[in-house]
């Protein structure tokens, strides 16, 4: 793509990069000007760029404001995305929402319930009754689309991140054994058993969240593992712990 890009597109992309870097935290007096510069540059470059990847706030900050500008918008980790993702969706002809309702969602901590109800009544009064409650600050984009497109959900069952014994608890307790762990560890990666239940006899919570008994046990266990010559990479792990103050 870089080889095919015209000089005009390359210039626009460089102008976009410079403008976004100048925006910084977006609180400076010149930030509005840099946002305009970024949008102008993105508008010139977007016809030649098939895919843009950015956090939600960057969409409104630096992409042209145009309905249906993109053929497809994908919201990843949508169960952790609040309604600030909606401006990205307005730019889509089609939408793909990827999320997991078993993960942490927005909490809306510190927001006044009466104020929320008042704003929802003022600005969302014409929304479909079933959709309106899903547009509160304590709901995620995933929650909203799970209601709006209830007939279009597809569960992805193949799990590649963890080996079977590691994901077993979550698979049993949260996913009704519907996940299929497909990662097969190499011989050098295997630990048998991979999980061990330990009862720390002197473990108790002290002031705040400190549990000296558990912390002491964890440190001793790490020291035992890194000093075991049969553990691959033990010297490197030990060096990493030393470098980080562990």
Question: Which key phrases capture this entry?
Answer:
DNA2/NAM7 helicase helicase domain-containing protein; mainly alpha; 246 residues; single chain; two-stranded parallel ribbon; P-loop_NTPase; Coronavir_polyprotein_1ab; 5'-3' DNA helicase activity
Question: What does this entry look like structurally?
Answer:
This protein has 246 residues and is mainly α. It has 4 domains: 1-50; 66-150, no CATH class; 155-195, no CATH class; 198-238, no CATH class. Helices cover 40% and strands 7% of the residues. The chain has 9 helices and 4 strands, in the order αααβαβααβαβαα. The protein has helices at residues 7-23, 31-45, 56-62, 86-90, 113-123, 141-148, 164-173, 212-226, 234-243, and strands at residues 70-75, 92-97, 158-159, 180-181. The strands form 2 sheets. Strands 1-2 form a two-stranded parallel ribbon. Strand 3 (158-159), helix 7 and strand 4 (180-181) form a beta-alpha-beta unit.
> What kind of sheet is the major sheet?
2 strands, parallel
- The radius of gyration over CA amounts to 25 Å
Average residue pLDDT: 82
How far apart lie the N and C ends? 45 Å
Count of DSSP strands: 4
Low-confidence stretches: 234-246
Overall shape: extended
| Helix-residue proportion | 25-40%
Overall tally of domains: 4
Query: Tally the helices: what do you get?
Result: 9
- Encode the helix/strand succession as letters: HHHEHEHHEHEHH
Concise structural overview:
GO terms for molecular function: 5'-3' DNA helicase activity. The protein is mainly alpha-helical and 246 residues long. Helices cover 40% and strands 7% of the residues.
């Amino acid at each position: 793509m870089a080889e095919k890009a015209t000089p005009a597109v390359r210039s626009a992309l460089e102008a976009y990069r410079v403008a976004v870097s100048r925006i910084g935290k977006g609180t400076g007096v010149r930030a509005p000007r840099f946002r305009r510069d970024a949008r102008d540059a993105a508008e010139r470059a977007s016809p030649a760029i098939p895919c843009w990847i950015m956090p939600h706030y960057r969409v409104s900050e630096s992409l042209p404001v145009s309905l249906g500008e993109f053929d497809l918008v994908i919201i990843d980790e949508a169960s952790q995305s609040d309604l600030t993702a909606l401006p990205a969706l307005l730019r889509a002809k089609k939408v793909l929402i990827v999320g997991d309702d078993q993960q942490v969602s927005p909490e809306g901590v510190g927001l006044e319930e009466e104020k929320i109800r008042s704003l929802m009544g003022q600005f969302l009064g014409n929304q479909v009754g079933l959709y309106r409650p899903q547009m509160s600050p304590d709901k995620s984009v995933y929650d909203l689309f799970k209601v709006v497109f209830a007939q279009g959900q597809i569960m992805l069952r193949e799990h590649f991140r963890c080996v079977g014994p590691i994901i077993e608890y979550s698979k049993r307790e949260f996913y009704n054994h519907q996940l299929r762990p497909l990662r097969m560890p190499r011989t050098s990666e295997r630990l048998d058993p991979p999980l061990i239940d330990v009862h720390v006899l002197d473990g108790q919570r002290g002031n705040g969240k400190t549990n000296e008994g558990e912390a002491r046990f964890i440190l001793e266990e790490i020291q035992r593992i890194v000093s075991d010559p049969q553990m691959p990479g033990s010297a490197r792990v030990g060096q990493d712990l030393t470098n980080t103050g562990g």
